[in-house]
Each structure stands twice: as structure tokens, then as C-alpha cells.
Amino acid sequence: MEKIETVSEMLIVSASPHIRATRKTSLAMRVVTIALLPALIFATYLFGLRVLLITIISILFAVGCEALMQRMLGKKITIADGSAILTGLLLAFNLPPGVPWWLPAVGSAFAIIFAKQLFGGLGYNFINPALAGRAFLMASWPSLMTKEWLTPVGGTLSGIDGITTATPLSLLKNPANYGNPEIIIRQLNDFDTIRDIFFGRIGGCIGETSALFLLIGGLFLIFLRIVDYRIVVGYLGSFVLLVWLLPTQGSVLFHLFAGGLLLGAFFMATDWVTSPVTKKGRWIFGIGCGVITVIIRIWGGYPEGVSYSILLMNVFTPLIDRLTKERVFGELSKKGVKK
Hints:
mainly alpha; 58% helix
């Protein structure tokens, strides 16, 4: 008697989401890159052509290492898809503008080789390559990653006149090291300081100085449905709520606009490969990022917690997908009863 195949044997039966569009990965990568260009142009204006040099080196080494690894592994070279370009750009955005030229080269090489290609390439890496590169550089050369700041045109490094050796978040973390803590904290929470942080007239990493341009680019991606709003809202919403409820010396607006929060929420936590595929999972992922970021900022040793929060949640993505997987209906069980 001929065996009758079940639906699950003939077809791939799974819970949603299913493919419902023909949009190419390369197009999405290019759109995200375009959304980051206003922040890059503004950073070049703030810190000079050195920003472009660092960014170009980061991108070239990312693309070069991608092609080299694919050639060595006998794979099709896919540098035209734009993923390596985006990785190099995001890595540059996470670097201080005063770092030596070799630092972005090493960071991009690590990101592509160890965090992406050795795991199978695009679609198989379990952590964000750019953030992995940043974490490697932070662990290897912490002094270069935390002290090579430049004073922006028309502004100050810290947001406060007279303090030229610390970014706003570093200043908030250790105000006693720079003067009277009460006066410094009051100045950091002042409207004029927060306005400068929002528009970008402060120091910091290349891609985190202007909250305005990051917000414009991020909303542009949500409007085009390139990124999922659930991760962004979950991340920023949980972050704002906890900052408002927990004891911290910085105001909600200060924490929201300072550092790399908007860069991480819109452009790195929403990475399609390393974030959950289910709708519930994306809410959990975003909220988890927000909680960990607040914990690190308030009680951790680093003034910023965005990168490590996203990397930690990347590790939990498979578990989140498994726990939030929607039920598959219409499949026969072993006993012949529909699930």
C-alpha cells in the first residue's frame, strides 16, 4: 500500500512570519546606509575630514575582509549586497573621532571575520558584527576607545564650558572628578545643555552626537517598514520608564538623547539577523535591551550600556524565538488528531 504523505512532509509548515514581499536584502541595506548619511555628514562638519577617513577605512576593511573570507571558504563573493558596507559604517559610528587610523581597520576585520563569516556569513551570525567589533576594541584598547575625543565645532566636549576631558555621560558617571558634583549635575540637566546634546553640539562617538539626525533617519526606516517599530518602542519605552522610576542623577531627556541610545535602538537592535522573528519576541527583545542599558548606566562601571545590552540580547534571541513561536494549526499529530 502506498504511503500517504502528510502536509508537513510535503511542505514546510511553520508559524508566521512568512515571506510576503520580494524586497531584496541589498536594497534594504542601502536604505539603512542612506538613513545614516545625514548623521555622518553632520559628524564630518563637527569633527572635520578625519571622520570621513575613519569611516572609509572601516568600510574598506569590512568589504575587503568579506571578499577575502568568502574566497578562502570557497563561497560566492557577495560584497555587492551592502551588508559589509553597513557593518563598516556602523563600526565607525561607534568609534571616537580621534582614534588612530588602524583601529577601525582592526575592528572591521574582527567584525567580519570572527563575528560574521566564521559563523556562515549573512543570515547565520548570532550577534551584531559591528557591535562585536566595538566590544573587541573596547576590551583590547580601552584607553583609545574612551579618551580619543575631539571638541566639536561650535560646542564643547562635555556640554559644559570649562570641562574638556569628558563626554556628557562620563561626566554624569563621575562628576566629583571634574568639580563640584551638585553644580555639574545641575548644569547637565539644564535646558541649554540638553538642547546642545539633542542637536549635536557635544563630543562623543562619530555616530552618536546628533540625536536629531539619528531620530530622523530612524523614523524614516520605520516609515518604510525596513525596521520593526516593536523593538524600537520596546527599547526606548522601557528605558524611559526605568530612568523615570529609578534613582539617577540625569533627567529622562538627558539619558534619552545622550550617548548611543538612539543609534542602538533604531539601527543596531533592529538588525534582522540577530533579533527575533516573532512579534512578541521583538517586544521582549526591545524591553530587555532597555532594562540592561539602564542597569549598566546606573550601576555598572561603564557610563554607556547600549552596545553590551544589544549583544547580550542577541545571545538570547534563539531562546526568545522558541518561547514565543506561534502555534501551527492544521498539522496531524501522531495519533491522527489535528493540533
